[in-house]
Specification:
By secondary structure, the protein is an alpha+beta fold. Helix content is about 60%, strand content about 25%. The chain has helices at about 20-75, 80-100, 105-115, 145-155, 185-190; strands at about 120-130, 135-140, 160-170, 175-185. It is elongated and about 165 Å long.
Length: about 190
Amino acid sequence: MPKTAKGIILKIDFLRSQDQSQRVYSKLIKWLLSKGRFILVFVELLVLIAFISRFKLDADLAAIKEQTEQYIPYVESLRPDENLIRQLQFQIAKIKEVKQDHPDYSAILQKISTLTPISITISNLNLQKNAEMVDFKITGVSQINQAISAYVFSLRKDLSFTNVNLETISFDQGQILFTIKGTVNFKNLAQN
């Protein structure tokens, strides 16, 4: 019987290197050959799908471009209508601007006529715009003195009129001639 040596047994493999860096490279190559190939196949599959979908997307783009070009004559035929609409919108905007910046003379005349007593005859009415106010001058004739004072009082009482004063008064052939001056706030008139 052979004698067994009791001691430390060392196994040395001369075919494999014990260097750590070579061990990492060998593990990486083994992994690439075993599981890494599936990743490579998956990436190649994605590239092929992207390449093939490119042809489909180009075809869709060409179809949409062709369809759009069919509508160009129709859209160009509507250009005069669009110009007319834009001109109309511009005119409406200008009218709105003018209407906001200028007084409504018909409302002023209506307001003055509703406040005028029956016994007074207006012979002259002058309206002149100044900023947000309209200066007015009323020249009239009456037979009754109380009608003129009631007229001046009713103009002063109305909130649309300010600075209402009886400027002149005179007698001519049994009639009373008078002149009233004042201002109208036409912005305030629209609210009343």
